[in-house]
Specification:
The protein is built from 17 helices and two strands. The chain is mainly α. The relative contact order is 0.13.
Length: about 350
């Protein structure tokens, strides 16, 4: 059996159907998000709209696929979990979506990724300097959105904490690339978990917690929802790593074995290297080579148990998130919809 066949057999199950709550929350939040972007400088606003998939370069309407609005949904459900209308959580949803877009703009520049959602990244379409400016504008707009909302000071503090963690996570992720594959300085899976919580989980937790605060939730509920998002973020990132190696490009929009070709230190690779099996030693030797074949690397990661360990880690984090949700004293209906997201997000197709 070839390495390509092994990798294909190792692909995750087909993506599950998107929960209806995502569409409901996107519909609720979109007008406020458009209104905010519309207040930006026209050129900067065009770049922001392009990043959301609303327009092409030059401003012509687009039908490009945008994001699923996961953070928007967490913010709206956070407010509803507190017994308020979902509209109360809209400022938190807008702010979270703006910060997420800002982080993607800057991530693509730092990583040199030329494409985002199957079309040129903003920095490729408009230039690096303009893309940095657009990201900065989105960040500033996010802070303004929360600062002018009810309970603004408290939600701005939540956003500030999340942003600090996001920067720490991004810094660690960039530094991981400089560390060796083996030896005392190698990246451990525990370090990766911390990075993923900071880089991905912090904003998910902030969205849910800020929505809850705007809905009038007590601090204990908001803190519990923050923990839900943070553990969910680890699961989200780990599954993204699995898709980056074994996912179907027609579904994920990512090139075959793209993460391995870029030699990223993702969770399946790190877990495989830590495994006490012969395949881990062969994998380490292969990764040390400048001419490593990505298909052979993928096969060895799978043989050493990296894919299995990654999916087990995602399920573990999901279970921790479920436990945090159970202790959040959330209203029954929103809690059920949050559980549907917890079930869906780690198995999404992006």
């Amino acid at each position: 059996m070839t390495a390509r066949a092994t990798a294909a057999q190792a692909s995750p199950p087909a993506a599950v159907r998107e929960p209806r709550v995502l569409g409901r929350c996107r519909t609720l939040v979109r007008p406020a998000l458009e209104e905010g972007v519309g207040r930006l400088h026209p050129w900067v606003g065009e770049m922001a709209a392009y990043s959301f998939g609303w327009c092409e370069v030059g401003g012509a309407p687009a039908r490009a696929r945008g994001g699923k609005g996961l953070r928007q949904a967490l913010a709206v459900l956070g407010a509803e979990a507190a017994g308020a209308s979902g509209r109360a959580g809209v400022p938190a949803a807008v702010a979270a979506e703006l910060v997420h877009a800002f982080s993607l703009l800057h991530d693509d520049i730092m990583d040199g990724d030329p494409a985002r959602r199957r079309r040129p990244a903003v920095w490729k379409a408009y230039g690096t300097g303009p893309a940095v400016l657009a990201g900065d504008a989105l960040f500033a707009l996010a802070v303004e959105t929360l600062a002018t909302a009810p309970a603004g000071p408290r939600t701005v503090r939540l956003l500030s904490t999340a942003l600090g963690d996001l920067v720490r996570g991004q810094a660690d992720d960039l530094l991981f690339a400089e560390r060796p594959w083996t030896g005392p300085g190698r990246v451990r899976t525990g370090e990766y978990r911390t990075m993923a919580e900071h880089k991905t989980g912090s904003l998910l937790g902030c969205a849910a917690a800020a929505g809850a605060v705007l809905g009038g939730a007590p601090r204990a509920t908001a803190d519990a929802l923050d923990r839900v998002g943070r553990h969910l973020g680890i699961a989200f990132q780990v599954v993204d790593d699995v898709l980056g190696i074994w996912g179907d490009p027609a579904v994920t929009g990512k090139p075959v074995l793209g993460d391995l070709r870029e030699r990223k230190k993702t969770f399946p690779v790190l877990a495989a290297l830590e495994a006490p099996v012969p395949a881990a030693g062969r994998l380490a030797a292969l990764l040390a080579s400048d001419t490593a074949d990505p298909e052979e690397v993928a096969a060895l990661i799978d043989e050493a148990g990296g894919r299995t360990a990654a999916l087990a880690e995602a399920h573990r984090c999901l279970g921790t998130a479920q436990a945090a949700l159970a202790g959040a004293a959330a209203a029954a209906g929103p809690a059920a919809e949050l559980r549907s997201l917890l079930d869906y997000l780690p198995r999404r197709d992006l």
